[in-house]
Amino acid sequence: MASFIFRRVLQMIPTFAGVILLIFFLFKFFGGDPAEIMGGLQASAKQIESIRNQLGLNKPVWEQLWIFTRQVLTFDWGQSWATKESVSHIFSTRLPATLTVMLPILVLEVVLAIVCGMAVAYVRGSLTDRAVMVISTVALSISFLVYVIVGQYLFAFRLGWFPVQGWTNSTLQNLVQYAPLPVLLAVLVSLAPNTRLYRSFFLDEMGHDYVRTARAKGVPEKTILFRHVLRNALIPILTNIATQLPGVFIGSFLIEVFFSIPGLGREVYVAVNRSDYPVIQAVTIYLAVLTMVINLVTDLMYKLVDPRVVFK
């Protein structure tokens, strides 16, 4: 396993270098002139030229690339162009709010989807199975904006169970008072597609020979489902979870915007609207690194779930 991890880490290096090059040249040649963006419409040519000198935009391309690479490796992205706030401070202060909302969403949607998927697979072909699939299909066709609008109107304005907006410095208060409504709505949105997906995983495993052999030996259906099918179906489930994890650290843009949650997702949304390149570049680079790390951890989890998995 150690050799596998070492090889994967070595493979990450050229991938990481490619990400740096891609981000640098995309923003260099297709993102507009940073000096003109920072100077605004009223800036004179002299002021724009002064900004270029401050940002080092008049230096050779290879030197600018080295400065950008050094920023990535030292975690020093300077200041936000819009707010003059340190980019590292933006990460450290916005990320806790994002995790406060997105981690409960991830845990609940995974657990509930697995339970619902197993339950529907257990009663496959029945009226309950068909009804759940119809409801899931209808739920998939409804936009998340509809869930937000209806949820805020029903649970906040009509019933008064939750506040529509608000946030404090207390994690416990946020979890109890401000996070439940966005968490509830996000889980409802994700439950339908994940239930359908996990149901297909379970049904695929239940069609294998080892399940038919267990049934022929008289093993109860619940034992087959929980002891054998679930464990084998966890590999594609882990793959699906791995694709969702990077989004946890960015947060759902719509959730944080509509509920005024001061998280990283809303900060990225605002940065894009303001063409705040340092923030956008930092988020893009670190999200790429996080994705590579999550993929590695997921591969290691495969071995934990199924000892038959062999690393090559």
Structural write-up:
The model has no long low-confidence stretch (mean pLDDT 82). The protein has two domains: 2-74, no CATH class; 91-305, MetI-like (MetI-like fold, Orthogonal Bundle). It has 14 helices and no strands. With 312 residues, it is mainly α. The longest helix has 36 residues, at 87-122.
Write the layout of secondary structure elements.
Blueprint: H1 2-29, H2 34-39, H3 45-55, H4 61-74, H5 87-122, H6 127-140, H7 144-158, H8 171-178, H9 180-206, H10 209-216, H11 221-250, H12 253-258, H13 264-274, H14 277-305
Helix pairs in contact: 1-14, 5-9, 5-11, 6-9, 7-9, 9-11, 11-14, 13-14
Keywords:
mainly alpha, MetI-like fold, 14 helices, 78% helix, globular
- Portion of residues in beta strands equals under 5%
The geometry reads as globular
Number of domains: 2
N-to-C SSE string, H for helix and E for strand: HHHHHHHHHHHHHH
Radius of gyration of CA atoms, rounded to a whole number: 24 Å
Helix content: over 70%
Largest sheet at a glance?
none
Structural class: mainly alpha
Strand tally is 0
From the 3D structure, determine the CATH topology of the largest domain. MetI-like fold
- Name the CATH superfamily classification of the largest domain: MetI-like
Oligomeric category: single chain
Number of helices: 14
Distance between the termini: 9 Å
Average pLDDT works out at 82
- CATH architect. name of the largest domain: Orthogonal Bundle
CATH first level of the largest domain? Mainly Alpha
Low-pLDDT sequence parts:
none
